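Table S2 (continued). Query chain:
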Amino acid sequence: MRPSLRKLGLGASQFPTGVATRGRPPEAEVRDMLIACARADLGFLDAGGAAPSCEQMVGLNLPRPVPMGVLIRSVRGERGPDVVETEVRASLARLKLTKARAVVVQSASDLFAPAGQALWDRLKKLRDEDGLFDQVGVCAYASDDPAGVARRFKPDLLQAPASLLDQRLLLDGSLMAVREMGIEVHLRSIFLNGLLFLPPDRVPAQLKGAAGRLSRARRMIAEGRSDPLQAALGFALSRPEADAVIVGSSSAAELAAVIAAASSPPPDLDWDEMALDDPIALDSHRWAAA
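Corresponding output:
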């Protein structure tokens, strides 16, 4: 197995829950996905964003001893640090873990809220005194100034969006600056909400301004004898800023395709020419529901 797969992590936010899909109960799908992670020697499972019922399924089906680092996410801090601690401990209990690799603040904006410093101090206490985590981290967007967040709060890890279409935090040096502070960098949203996979006739109307650039990126990938999945993964896994790359999958079949693509050598493409500069395209909240 390629060593780069230790940089790859699976996000649980898209795991199936509720009724059966494609004729398979969710628990069977989740079990197969977790087994596939272990067999492929993936480095991380990011359970952040998973519903409590999904955390329970993961806890029941996670291979033991746990072969990968597990990340959980704190709830929003406006209800105070006591509630945050209660929910964090509940997540660990549902996952059947006494300790996780890291707890991650779900938005850097939480740290700048009135209760932000109390939230941060409590999570560090749970790391340092209670031993519930090895690391405390934070998720940041491009608009959050990730390097500034890192300098002020000094997290152990920082998660941020970056992809071959959204290269803002790579081109401006923000994520390299974070890594040079000794902070672990995890790339997320590497598929930009699936934008690279959409056929031209399904691209939302709001993205008309980016259509030409998207078509060019797809053409370059095809001419390089690659496909969008392999290109997206090859780009992210090859970035020197990245200690980890977190991807989402909703089925064992999807995960198998991700693992196969990540196991292939990255294509030799002109990554710089694929970066988008359209502000609407780079903010999936503005078009994903279209």
